[in-house]
Amino acid sequence: MTDVAAAEAPAATDEELLARFLRTKNQPTGSQTLGFRMQKVEQATRSVEVAFEARAELLCNPMGQIQGGYLCAMLDECMSVACMVASGMTAVAPTLEMKTSFLRPAMPGALKGIGRVIKWGKTVAFTEGELYDDQGRLVAKATGTAIPTPFKVYKK
User: Fold this and answer.
1) What is the C-alpha separation between 105 and 30, in angstroms, rounded?
2) Cα dist from 41 to 10, 13, 140, 146, whole Å
3) Which one of 7, 41, 82, 119 has the largest count of C-beta atoms within 10 Å of its C-beta?
4) What is the per-residue pLDDT for 153?
């Protein structure tokens, strides 16, 4: 499997891509619920940094901690956006499978997510994601496999 995205020159700078994400008017409802906000794009490393603002009334279990499924969704967002960046903004990469390790409870408030593409091939992408609390402690880590799909497939 060749690492397709690695050989292509970026069509836009990291700053231009970040500005494009920040200008998006129709953010998916799931992203809004998670408090998603793009912070950084690094095309050279095929990675992104995302801020999440986890609201207790939406995302917490009865113990006051963010429910694990929402942490998985945050990690999936990070890894998926990293795939878009790795493709040069020409493809999405629906998740085929994902494994998450929960390392400590995550509390409501600010979380930082990192998503990166480890390998980008013609038919499969391998990704990693990490979530950190507001004190910089790793709360969850994930690996995933996704299927690169050109944007045009989704156009009607």
Assistant:
1) 21
2) 12, 9, 21, 19
3) 82
4) 55
